[in-house]
Amino acid sequence: MKFRPCIDLHDGVVKQIVGGSLTDTASPDTNFVAEKPPAWFAELYRRDNLTGGHIIKLGAGNDTVAKEALAAWPGGLQLGGGVNAENAASWIEAGASHVIVTSAVFKDGEIDMDSLRKIVDAVGVKRLVLDLSCRRRADDYYIVTDRWQKFTKVVVDGSILQELAAFCAEFLIHAVDVEGKCRGVERELVARLGRLSPIPATYAGGISCMEDIHLIEELSGGRLDYTVGSALDIFGGTGLHYSEVAALSR
C-alpha cells in the first residue's frame, strides 16, 4: 500500500475540485487553486521518488502544462483526461508511464470492447490504466463517465473487475460522491475493491486525515494504494502534511 500523488488540471492550473461538480456549462466547486505551475508539483514528486501518481486533464486547455509536468518527471506519472486510441501513444511518447482511460471505452452506458482493444493495440496492456470512478445508486456503485456526470450501466463488482483486468495494468477508482469533501472514505467501496480487484488498484475520495489512510489499509487488507487531494497542505488542506504522507509511503 502506497501513496500515489496527483496533479489535477483545470484551465491550465492545478486545482482541487469537488467531485461531480465539473460540467460544461458551470464553474466547478473548487477547494484550491495553485499559484505554482503543474511542473513544480511534478518536480516535488520526483524529488521524493513518488512513482505511480497521475495527472488528470479536466477539460480543454491543459495539454501544454500537462506535457511540461510529464517532462519534469519523465516516466514517473500517469496521464488521463481525453485519452483515446488516436492520442494514447503520443502521451506515452511525451513521458507518461501509463495512460488512464474512462469515457473512450464506454458507449451507450456499456463497455465498448472494440474501443478498448484499439487502445490496448496503441499502447499495450502494461501501459494502460482503466479509470473505474463510480457513484453510488441504490445498493451498488456504477461507473460514471464524462467528468463523472453520466452513469453507465456497469456496476463495479467482481465479475467486471476480473473481465477488465485482462486489458490493463491497474485500476484507478475515485469515489465521486465523497471526492474533494474531506469527510471520510467510502468504506464499502474500499472493502469491495480490496477484496475483489485482481490487479493493483488506487482509491481516491474523502481522505481527510491519517486515520482515513489507516482505515483504507484495514478495510482493504493493505491491497489498495491511495491518492490524497484536498486534505494535503500542498493543496491548501489542513488534515495531512505532504511530507508525512510521502515519508509513510517510503
Give a topology summary.
Blueprint: E1 6-10, E2 13-17, E3 30-33, H1 38-47, E4 53-57, H2 63-72, E5 77-80, H3 88-93, E6 99-101, E7 106-107, E8 110-111, H4 113-123, E9 128-131, E10 134-137, E11 140-145, E12 150-155, H5 158-165, E13 170-174, H6 187-196, E14 201-204, H7 210-220, E15 224-227, H8 242-249
Parallel strand pairs: 1-4, 4-5, 5-6, 6-9, 9-13, 13-14, 14-15
Antiparallel strand pairs: 1-2, 2-3, 7-8, 10-11, 11-12
Question: How would you explain this protein's 3D organization?
Answer:
The radius of gyration is 16 Å and the shape is globular. It is built from eight helices and 15 strands. The strands form three sheets. A ten-stranded mixed beta sheet has the order 3-2-1-4-5-6-9-13-14-15. Strands 10-11-12 form a three-stranded antiparallel beta sheet, with no helix packed on it. A two-stranded antiparallel ribbon has the order 7-8. A hairpin with a 4-residue loop joins β11 (140-145) and β12. It has one domain (6-249): TIM Barrel. The relative contact order is 0.15. By secondary structure, it is of the alpha/beta class.
Shape: globular
Second rung of CATH, namely the architecture: Alpha-Beta Barrel
| Overall number of structural domains | 1
Strand segment tally: 15
Q: How much helix is in the residues? A: 25-40%
CATH topology: TIM Barrel
Helix/sheet category = alpha/beta
Order of helices and strands: EEEHEHEHEEEHEEEEHEHEHEH
Largest sheet: 10 strands, mixed
Average predicted local confidence, pLDDT: 94
